[in-house]
Amino acid sequence: MEIKINNLSYKYDQKEVLKDINLTFQQGKIYTILGPNGTGKSTLLKLLNRWLKVPKGCIFYDGQDITVMRNLDIAMKVAIVPQENNWQYDFIGEEIVIMGRYPHLKRFEKEGVEDFKIAYQAMNKTNTEYLKNRNINKISGGEKQRLVVARALAQETDVILLDEPVSQLDLQHQLEIMRIIRKMANEENKLAICVLHDINLAISFSDELIFIKGGSIYAQGRPEMVVSKTLIKDVYGVDSEVIPNQLTGKPHIIYENN
Amino acid sequence: MEKLKFKRKMVLATGILLLLASLIIAISIGGSSMDPYASFTGLLLRGTDTENTIIWSIRVPRIIEAILAGGGLAIVGCTFQGIFRNPMADPFVLGISSGAALGASIAIVSGISLTIAGFTGVSVLAFTGAILTVSAIYLVSSIRSRKENSILLLMGIALNFFFSSIIYLLMFIRYDKMKEIVMWTFGTFSTSSWDKVFFLAPVVVIGSMLLGLFARDLNSLVLGEKEAHSFGVSVEKSRNLMILIGTIITSVIVSASGIIGFVGLMIPHLLRFIVGSDYRKLLPMSFLYGSVFLLLSDTIARTVIRPSELPIGAITALFGSPFFIFILLNRKKGY
């Protein structure tokens, strides 16, 4: 699936949050949206699956304006991985993952063998099978987030939106989640659109970076094409050096201390 | 999982057995000093006329009303706790109880004496008060584009206080009616009749089955509204429908039997501790255990000081709270 954004502007309480956004997202790639807090990154993500009210003629899935689509049709195409999982009530891992099958079920229909098979495959890919009987409130943040990724995979959508999926996790779990997503993009041709704060993490896992400043796109393109000392200074107001990453050959940013 | 599935089956089987046991107890004993054997002959219409009448016109409708009220309140409480993602939510959280109490107080104070389908003026005004309260909350809160849970809840609390004040003023002005108003707010099944049962049963049964259809929506809403939306749930629509159904069920129960607290708040929690939060299991089990709980409470209320009765609203929490605290403290971590 291809997602196209045409001249999207968005106002929240009279304040313009996004201005004239034009973007195209293609299958099999990871796009990461970066920028300072409050620049509209999360807003953009929330518009992409119509959680916020989208103006007509601005966002298209395969050429179809999403304002005319049913919620269910959107849920069949786009899954989400939110930043925080505020789970107050007790569920077990399996119950969380099987929720990814909800859009595929009719109101009177029960989850079938096939749905459980898909859910277990998703758990296998995210290494969460051992969590299927565990209470979700008794597992670590990394395990929770892997379950949520499994749920998004069980939803069998072409697109996954990830809003700061790793910001609550330690280094090992950050990499674990990002590797799973990279693998899904490579092997299953998924389109992943992320919001991340860690620019170096974004550089190593993304096909394209999109820098937003003050609600407008400041720069976009392959990491090695867009990342530079001036960009970091302009977007974040921070002094830095960009050096080549010895392992990947991609750019790596080192921040100055003062 | 296998362990949890087994546990759920056990809890379900236990609930059904408890319901049957409570039914037998509730039919056997009562205010009149009839022996349990005579009760059963009465049930089979083989006793004396008095026995038949006591069983069929007094105990059976009362038992059915308690079962419907308990089940209905518990399933609505369970639903509201999910919609509002708030463990403190119960069927009365949107001000239904105080709206109904105000309606009932007005009827009592003004001495209206109409009867509609077996319902007295008090019941009718209580029902009207409950429905109007929730409608008012809804209209006011819909001024905002996206209804926030906290606003609905806070409005409910504010209205609860507001209506309570009016009720206090009414009682202050009409001191002679105070006892009647207070007694109404305690809740009772002593006024049950077949008329009431015929009115309650379809509303509670159909309403509860409709709520059951929202089990998956509730599961996803409990995770968060954004998540529910991403599974294709029309968050606003689905929530409005559930609130509407829940309000109707609760209003009908309250107008028939007054305000009976505790059951709608605690039964769903108690079950959550034991069988987890999956609403597909939690909703039917809440209904089952709510029924058992109110049936037993009512049996206690009408027998311990017979031929007089205790207010059921006092009984539910008196016995329920210590039990609930016991479970809360002994709850095993994880399953």
How many strands, what sense, and barrel or not for the largest sheet of chain A?
6 strands, mixed
**Shape of chain A, please?**
globular
CATH topology of chain A: Rossmann fold
Proportion of residues in extended strands of chain A: 25-35%
What does this structure look like?
The complex is a heterodimer of chains A (258) and B (335). By secondary structure, chain A is an alpha/beta fold. Chain A has one domain (3-255): Rossmann fold (3-Layer(aba) Sandwich). In chain A, 33% of the residues lie in helices and 26% in strands. Chain A is built from nine helices and twelve strands. In chain A, the strands form three sheets. In chain A, strands 6-7-8-3-9-10 form a six-stranded mixed β-sheet, with helices on both faces. In chain A, β11 and β12 (251-255) form a beta hairpin. Chain A is globular and about 55 Å long. Chain A starts with a strand and ends with a strand. Chain B has 335 residues and is an all-alpha fold. Chain B has a single domain (2-330), classed as Orthogonal Bundle (ABC transporter involved in vitamin B12 uptake, BtuC), CATH 1.10.3470. Chain B has 14 helices and two strands. In chain B, α3 packs across α13. The longest helix of chain B has 35 residues, at 49-83.
